[in-house]
Amino acid sequence: ALKGQNKTQGNWGEWQLEVLLEKAGLERGTHYLAQNTFRDDEGAAKRPDFIIQLPGERHLILDAKVSLTAFERFFNETDPAQREQHLRAHVQSLRAHVDNLSNTNYQMLRQLNAPDYLLLFIPLENALSLATQADPQLFADALDRNVVLVTSGSLLATLRTVGYLWRQEKQTR
Q: What angle do CA 99, 102, 107 make, to 5 degrees?
């Protein structure tokens, strides 16, 4: 998947994300929706990767737009100057994903009751770790754009909490 085209990498990231959702005990169609299309106030189609449904008709928006081409090139490069160039490209790729996701304004969709922020899933912990080491401001800049960068570990804890909320809701009913 790392050596594939951006579409292949995106599909792999979405698959990784769906596996995490299922491992957290969430069910597709009940606790989360995948690739649903919504319309904004101007009629433009918006299609987040995943909508996590919470009790009380609330939602979390989760996206897996990740290109790891520069990350893969960084690790396979032996020339230090080229490695540095690939590292900068990797950081820039993540920043571009943050900007693109922030500009989608998914959280403004009337059909969803979501907080002001979106979750951007990065399927490789090392990819985010390397980027934040190279650019310590990356995480804070993403937060300023209402995007929270998450990896498998941090997201799984959040998803387990969502699963707990659903169990509590079921018991209450």
A: 170
Determine contact, residues 163/26, Cβ cutoff 8 Å. Answer: yes
Return the closest-CA partner of residue 16 out of 150, 112, 163.
Answer: 150
Mean pLDDT of 105-113: 85
**Burial class of residue 55, CB neighbours in 10 A (0-12, 13-18, 19+):** middle
DSSP track, the chain: -TTS-HHHHHHHHHHHHHHHHHHTT--BTTTEEES--EE-TT--EE--SEEEEETTTEEEEEE-----HHHHHHHH--SHHHHHHHHHHHHHHHHHHHHHHHHH-GGG-TT----S-EEEE-S-HHHHHHHHHH-TTHHHHHHHTTEEEE-HHHHHHHHHHHHHHHHHHHHH-
Using only the alpha carbons of the chain, give its radius of gyration: 17
Confidence of residue 23 (pLDDT cuts 50, 70, 90): confident
